[in-house]
Amino acid sequence: MKLTDVEKAMRDGDDGPAVARAMDLLIRYGEALGAEALVETRNVCGTVTASTPFMRDFAMNYGGLEAVYSEFNLDSAEVVPIPKVRAFSSHLQLGFDPHNPADMGVGEDVVKFYRRSEAMVAKMGVQMMNTCTPYQVGNVPTRGEHCAWMESSAVIYVNSVLGARTNTEGRESTSAAMLTCRIPDWGYHRDEPRLATQGVDLQIPVESVEDWGLLGYWMGDWVQDRVPAVRGAMGRPNLPRLKHFGAAASSSGGVEMYHLVGITPEAPSWEVAFGNRPPQEVRAYGARERAETMDRINATGVDRAVDYVMLGCPHYTIEQIWEAANLLEGRHVHSNTALWLWTPRAIKDLADRNGYTNIIEAAGGRILTDSCSAMSRAVPPGTKVIACDSAKQVHYLPAILGVQAWFGTTSQCIDAACTGRWHG
Quick one: which of 198, 201, 199, 196 has its CA closest to 272? Predict the structure, then answer.
């Protein structure tokens, strides 16, 4: 790799052993990818804290929290002192909600260890957002800005909706980027890979969150890791619609970027989205494709008695919590059903102040933070059938937990929570 003098100095230890380990990791990583150089980034989102019993035991046996960071974040067998981060860095979601550990099946000893880890990471200068949607709570990169982000649904949003540039990174590469402000210059950091290769012609209107989730799930299953461009009868989507669309596409496939003609920043026209080249293939999305996708995504749903309604994947916006509270006000969650909503801590605070938390809790629901059922592998005891308004969560939870899953609108999910049955 071609390194600048500044990068060579970091590699050679001028800025301390942790930065040197981070540069060594990034150089090996970049060479494996075929990258010729590194690109500067000042915006990183990753997972840094230690929140598992395994990491707790590792810290106890091998040198504390710095040993955990050295081994699991920098691929360093030698324990090195960890300095403050140089890049603006945000922490993603956890494996449990530390405010409600009993619901997650997590013991108090793990929570105490996590609190120590969180304090260390915050002292490093990492923003403890603890969410899969950092763009909702203060980290909003600008068009063309080079980032180093984890989390599939966040990456696709940043690339497509905001026009910033990142690949789907991991714990190690983002941790190294936090200390060096560097990441390998390849993939979606470059112009060519960002151009569309596959086209989608909409033949039916796409309006609701459910519509966008189904379209994303169908599209991801088809294009896999290629870049699609979509044109046709789509209502102008808001944040929740784009959030669910991208999350669905990155779940059924490996989509990291898409274009919506006339809506997303790098697709003012069909021709520009494709770089004035013909698409490799164009497919139509109509009523038949929508119906087939609905059947496929609900393939695990058999029993109509719903044990658990999960809302908030990706994490709910304040708008979605407001909608859920309006749908719930004056109603009660069925005695055989649990309702959990997942959101960032910052949005939970806003929901508290606006009174939405009181409405949801008065109805028998809960607002949880920092994680989700897929990340925590946690559902209410005895859960066999779930309902979600997230195509992503319905895709993952049956495989992770062996449950049945129903997908539908937020209103249908609230009805299921209050009646105990799926009527979608």
Answer: 196
Question: What domain count does the chain have?
Answer: 3
Please give the angle made by the CA atoms of 406, 412 and 418, to the nearest 5 degrees: 100
Which residue type sits at 318? Answer: I
Per-residue model confidence as pLDDT tens digits over 43-62: 999 999 988 888 888 888 88
Distance CA 350, CA 193 (A): 39
Whose tokens are 């090195």? That residue is: 80
**Statement to judge: residues 345 and 225 lie in one domain:** no
Tokens of 225: 């890791």
Residue with the two structure tokens 């992503």: 392
The answer to whether the beta carbons of residues 369 and 104 sit under 8 Å apart is no
- Mark whether 42 and 109 lie in a shared domain: yes
Residue 150: domain span: 5-189
Is residue 34 located within the same domain as residue 164?
A: yes
> What's the pLDDT tens digit per position in 303-333?
999 999 999 999 999 999 999 999 999 999 9
CA angle 268, 269, 274 (to 5 degrees): 110
413: enclosing H helix or E strand: helix 410-419
- Residue 75 tokens read as 């691929």
Instruction: Say how many C-beta atoms besides its own lie within 10 A of residue 382's C-beta.
Output: 9
Measured in whole angstroms, the distance separating CA 353 from the mean position of its chain's CA atoms is 26
